């Protein structure tokens, strides 16, 4: 997907329109911070948030609401639908038989937080645009872009939702109910390495739940029902945690079935990042934690997902950034976390703080490692001489391909146009189509997207069918691989390898019968190509087997082995399914 400038400007303008609308709501009303429960037809004060104008009146907790702006509380729209008290002027409570009228005081705390959240919302969108140069790869990249837009709108809606803005509350509920859907999609692709872009049954359940919840929300606005009001005030938040726990259990079950450790830190980090917001501010289980502390933690979820997308090459990264600037961003980020945790130390008990910090560090360390890998890649640091050799070989191949095909055709077509008295429009279009076709073929050779979209077996079958259509050759295949155990990077390498070996058999050995065998055993993937061709000279000669040498270099990078036999001609490659552990960029 290519994010054009017009598309980006559209979303930026849309975000600005939402900002203007919510600004009008926030700056024309003062946040009181009172939430209530209904018991025996009485509205009982449940909580008084520290950021509200009534923060200094914690003594009213447990009191019953008598009047709101001089009116019966039963007739108050926000009270009966959101369980919040947001008066324009005053609220009257009955505290131990004594009536008290509290006058709302103008305060700017909620307005300042709204401004901070708005700045963050715009920065997220702008940095995402700058970070990936406005381009992403495949459906997962598109979904992440929509997730960024959705998150920016959600940040704008938090404070308006708290003061009872109906549209802001609708947007927040929509985000909360669909958040597990996005998490499931990202986890399936980035963690479980599931091929294809279809959504799971769990995602369909979440999608259905989200749609039904929003319909019930609209119904409750029209005709409030007590249990629905309670659900939309509290239950919808708890269900987010419930679905995240379900996702975690799914991953553990997958681990049990596959007998391999899965990187669950992204999901674990999401749970830990949401904990202070839900159980420290919205529904405090002890001392209330200021809402402002939760903002940096929420951004960690986006940070973790984008790290995985970069390393999985599902979004393009602006590698032209100065490494110093990149490191400066890291320094600011970690300094903010240190300050945040020093502030949280004052809010939590020491034992709980130590436990929370330990778990948080455990979840964050893999992300730090990924940041270092990305930083190293930006600085051009490679892990071994093999990486350098493989890279140079690929560059030489690309340069040779462009010089021998595309450039030669362009020169030829240019001469044809120069000697032609009249330009044939149809012929010119055919020339351009021919050039475009070759460039697309080059892009496919550099980094084929087929494995991620179609799966390894279908991709290899498609490539071999093309060979049989273009050449007089019969190709037999044996495929016994559990695709879910092969990640996309190794799968792409397998596809390239099979294509190169079959091409060698046809072009250099004049083979007419080729057998391709792919299998897995004990976390080792085997590729064997056998043909009836006759090669002149050394099969491994650099003169004819430039592509084979490149494959050998990459097999070494992956920690694998190559065995070549002459009679009959066969090449057998064995590599670890997960790739070489100490070289994440070895086969990019």
Describe the fold and architecture.
The chain has 588 residues and is α+β, with helices and mostly antiparallel strands. It folds into 4 domains: 5-23 and 107-378, no CATH class; 32-103, Pdz3 Domain; 382-446; 451-588, Histidine kinase-like ATPase, C-terminal domain (Heat Shock Protein 90, 2-Layer Sandwich), CATH 3.30.565. The chain contains 17 helices and 11 strands. It has helices at residues 5-27, 77-82, 109-131, 138-162, 166-190, 201-222, 226-258, 265-282, 294-311, 323-344, 350-378, 385-419, 425-446, 450-454, 456-470, 488-507, 546-557; strands at residues 34-39, 42-48, 64-68, 84-85, 90-95, 98-103, 474-480, 513-521, 524-531, 561-565, 569-576. A 5-stranded mixed beta sheet has the order 7-8-9-11-10, with helices on one face. It is elongated. It starts with a helix and ends in a 12-residue tail after the last strand. Its EC number is 2.7.13.3. One of its GO terms (molecular function) is ATP binding. It comes from Streptococcus mitis. It is an enzyme of class 2 (transferase). The chain crosses the membrane at residues 7-27, 112-132, 144-164, 170-190, 202-222, 228-249, 261-285, 291-311, 323-345, 351-368.
